[in-house]
Amino acid sequence: MEYLFKTIDAMAMVKMNVFHWRVTDSQSFPFVSSTYPELSNKGAFHPQFCTYDEEEVADLLEYARLRGVRVISEFNTPDHTLSWGNGYPDILTKCYKDSEPDGNLGPLNPTNPETFTFLENFYKEVVTRFSDSYLYLGGDVEFLSCWKSNPEIVQFMDSMQFGDDYGKLVTYYMDRLVEIIENVTGSESTITPILHESVFTNGFRSKTNAIIHVSSSLDRKTVTQLATTEGFNVIVTGEWQLDVWLSADDWKQHYEQDIRDFGGTDEQSQLVIGGLAAVWGRLVDETNLISLSWPRAAAAAERLWSRNPEDIEKFGERLSELHCRMAKNNIQGYPVNGPGFCPP
């Protein structure tokens, strides 16, 4: 938890006001669920030392609130869920080889009714523990091969007349999940779902109040153009992939990105409601989270608060100053302009 608190401190220093917390991934399920305790008991790296219990989650939310930062949680599905299967394997897809199960598990099984019962019960707890009115649902599927190998899913695809378009299966799943979120929140409150761009490009159109997260840097302008044309609000990552280290001074590329530069109309530009500097956990843990993130994320922060950038060399000087100020606050970031001296 220490490094999550440091992340909140750093965000507050540069006036970033939303912490998107991807709580779980394929590698680990550290969230302690009272509804499904085996998720963390069997899915975390260690059930005692590598988990977030109810009190710790509440402490982080309050710590962030006092610093003007809201916390939006993400439990990405249907993929990135191998850790779920350690405790509850029946909700995942069995992978096949030569017409026989090969012992591996893939994404959640969208043809199993119990999958959606499980999700409804789980999200009843999530919306209680995380009180924010936004919820990141993810939706990107990286490994379709398991779905394609499973005869039950192939049969379901045929019955739904999806053909070989597994994007339609993703859309079917996300439609069901969004309905679940609406059901568990009831009429007294509304949660706005945030969906990965691939959900949109796969054909999701049913809930225009959903927000599309434009993650890709290569297709940023195209996807932003298409999503805003359909009337969706979007948040953009694009070049702000902090876990990808392109060069020692890639912060310059981060600073030069204008997320409203995509060839849209003024009306479409108004639908670009924010940006997200991402530190995905593929190769990230507590040993490098802070150094990868800071002060590089400040380039995104400044562009989000200041439409017109200043001279990039002057910004680089201020970034070095920020590095020193963060170091004084025990936030040990990366010296973006090389070794230097921080005055006492």
UniProtKB/TrEMBL annotation:
Q: Which GO terms describe its molecular function?
A: beta-N-acetylhexosaminidase activity
| Key words, A-Z | Hydrolase
**What EC number(s) does this enzyme carry?**
3.2.1.52
Reaction(s) catalysed by this chain, per the record, are: Hydrolysis of terminal non-reducing N-acetyl-D-hexosamine residues in N-acetyl-beta-D-hexosaminides
One GO term under biological process is: ganglioside catabolic process
Sorted alphabetically, which Pfam families does this protein's record hold? Glyco_hydro_20
InterPro entries named among the record's database cross-references: Beta_hexosaminidase_sua/sub, GH, Glyco_hydro_20_cat
Q: Gene Ontology cellular component?
A: lysosome; membrane
Domain (Glycoside hydrolase family 20 catalytic) spans 2-307
Q: Could you say which enzyme class this protein belongs to?
A: hydrolase
Annotated Gene3D superfamilies: Glycosidases
Signal peptide feature range: none
Task: Give the transmembrane ranges.
Answer: none
- What family is this protein classified in? Belongs to the glycosyl hydrolase 20 family.
Protein name per Swiss-Prot or TrEMBL: beta-N-acetylhexosaminidase
